[in-house]
Amino acid sequence: MKNLNSIGLDNKKSMQLAEKLNVLLANYSIFYQNTRGCHWNIKGEKFFELHLKFEELYNDLLLKIDEIAERILTLGHSPNHKYSDYKKISSISESSFTDDGKKAVKDILESFKTIITIQRELLSLSTQAGDEGTGALMSDYIRAQEKLVWMYSAFIKK
Question: The whole model's pTM is what?
Fold first, then answer.
């Protein structure tokens, strides 16, 4: 019982999960800001359609950022909150200004690829740790995001 945290998980394994969740949090935070940039700066033929889609996406990302931070806290650890820290550990880079819809969607698809890969790793780690809470969260995210990948991919293939 000494090795267990307040929700009954092994302390060492929950630390590993929290560290990986902080990596995910960093990637989500950069992805979020990049998506807001797309929303603010989009121009052209598909402006109205993409402007709304990007807003939907960044609102969803913001909710997930909060859920991930709260999950880290539930595991008994602290979520990172500084962009300087995020930039160090994120695989997603800050995007340059773009007003091109297809390029923005391609960047979003690359970000999803990164995010989903990290979430799959977390799903595996959470299974090994017996952490159903983190596993369920990752499973829900992956399922919904796979559908978004399909939809955004269909958009750029017009």
Answer: 0.95
**CA–CA distance, 70 with 41 (Å, rounded to integer):** 31
- Residue 59's alpha-carbon distances to 2, 39, 43, 133, in angstroms, are 40, 11, 20, 22
Contacts for 46 with CB less than 8 Å, ≥ 6 apart: 101
Q: Which residues contact 112 (CB under 8 A, 6 or more apart)?
A: 145, 148, 149, 152
pLDDT for 26-52, tens place per residue? 999 999 999 999 999 999 989 999 999
At 81, phi and psi to the nearest 5?
-135, 0
> What confidence tens digit (pLDDT) does each residue in 68-119 have?
999 999 999 999 999 999 999 999 999 987 789 999 999 999 999 999 999 9
Cα(146)–Cα(142) distance, integer angstroms? 6
Domains recognised in the chain with CATH numbers: 12-156 (1.20.1260.10)
**Per-residue pLDDT band at 158 (split at 50, 70, 90):** low
Distances (CA, A) of 57 to 4, 19, 28, 64, 75: 37, 25, 11, 11, 27
Of the candidates 17, 8, 11, the one whose C-alpha atom is nearest the C-alpha of residue 124 is 17
In the structure encoding, which two tokens stand for residue 158, read together?
Answer: 């017009």
